[in-house]
Amino acid sequence: MFVAGFRRQPFYPQRMAASINNAAWLEWVAGLMGTVSRQSYAATFSPDRFYCLLEELPLHLLPMPARKSLQRSPVQAPRLVLNPQCQLFHGDELPSELDLGRELLSGFALAGAIAWVRDPHRGYMPFWLGPKFEQILH
Question: DSSP string of 113-129?
Answer without folding.
Answer: EEEEEEETTTEEEEEEE
